[in-house]
Amino acid sequence: MKTDIEIARECPLRPIEQIANYISIPSAELIPYGRHIAKVPLHLINKERVKQSNLILVTAITPTKAGIGKTTVSISLALGLNKIGKKAVCVLREPSLGPCFGVKGGAAGGGYAQVLPMEKINLHFTGDFHAITSAHNMIAALLDNYLYQHRDEGFALKEVLWKRVLDINDRSLRHIVTGLGNKTDGIPAESGFDITPASEIMAILCLATDLEDLRRRIDNILLGIRLDDSPFRVKDLGVGGAITVLLQDAINPNLVQTTEQTPAFVHGGPFANIAHGCNTLVATQTAMTFSDYVVTEAGFGADLGAEKFFDIKCRKSGLQPKLTVIVATTQGLKMHGGVPVEQIKAPCAEGLVQGLKNLDRHIANLKKFGQNVVVCFNRFATDTEEEFDLVRKHCAELGVNFAINNAFTEGGAGAVQLAQAVVDSIENAPSGPLRFAYEDADAPQTKIEKICKDIYGAQRVAYSKSALRMFDRIQKLGLGHYPVCIAKTQFSFSADSKLYGCPTGFTINIRDIVINAGAEMIVAIAGDIMRMPGLSKSPQAERIDIVNGQIEGLS
Length: 555
Fold this sequence. Notes:
Largest sheet: 12 strands, mixed
Low-confidence stretches: none
Shape: globular
CATH superfamily of the largest domain: P-loop containing nucleotide triphosphate hydrolases
Structural class: alpha/beta
């Protein structure tokens, strides 16, 4: 089969005005970025139309190195829905340069289910990530300058909480010292870098309802603690307006098209293992304004992305998904069933059955949120009908609809079965009112423990001394009502990336707490998860090149 980038190049692209017209977005309202990309202004969002649209969440089993294909399924479902006569669009996150040049090579779908133009989407796109990076680091520079300029007046912070960000994987920047050199070069201080998807500015952009709300949230960012224990925020710097100016274009959703020339929105890009893992609220609402069915995804497994989608994004916005699709593969399940990665392409019924325990826990968790579930199996060439029959029977015993997705090789026609299963489920048994994993009034520790025990399956939660001190600070600042966002490995229900399957009886160690006062959430750092990833021994960048004027190595 052809590579993703070869397929993408062969797909005809329509002018973005035609794509917009398909869902009745006026051409005159578009903010073009070339012929095939445009931003859509926020004022077109219609809250009444949003309420009438059918929102579908796509999540997955715990991911493995074999891959799951959740983004491909999200695009596939939108293609399949259009094939059966429904007006549908997908809403996705923007890829980060870190994984593109590190492990993935790209994150715009795969095969005949992609969003296009894939090279631009995977690279600089409309500059949203650059705007977020610049805004975040502008705050860091302004804060350092404020400390430098006012130190002779006795001003100081006993703790600086704001780091810098960069949209690349670079382990060398996790812990740094700034201000070295002459006295005029700044005040020496320990600092560090996170990757841009972990930036609080990214979270703010993805949760803001409009430009005014964006400005309010930026002003509330907690930068540090004064000597008298009072908070020091962006509004104390007096630069909230300047930072908002840097983001005034980035907040508008990006409109692109699929391999079958149907509309798609790609906007925002927080990771779900170190952040809340959902595209922007405004992109979701824009899509729901102009489409009857909207397919969105939440990053990594349902324990991460879906939980955060419900407990953070839906809690704050009032969104109510009509259905959740959970993606699985035979190879992924076999890895969770104890089959060595070298053998997962070979039939192994016992390993598959053992791996179903991982799927079962995710399904049970989604039902706790009140969600009706459809299990989607992403077909691989090595899969067998016997394996599908085994899983189909298992899902029937659970009372869960099951569908196979062939869109990777067949496009929208290969997702008709999935699309019909989704429509039938929504029409006959839509999800009930959304239930959350915890209450707003719960203490932050209680919220964390409810997620760790009720969703992950942990027996115990332990906290470092620094995490416990942060709980005291949260209480003093009156921020205990914020939702929590747990940062942990995506490869396990636990915080141990090697503990596959459906583990129980483990302990989750919370080693740090980060207050995102602008994004209005509390981030709990579990285990050894890093908010600045490193590169592998052979990063994908070694295979990315321009050959005969065309980009190769993106996938």
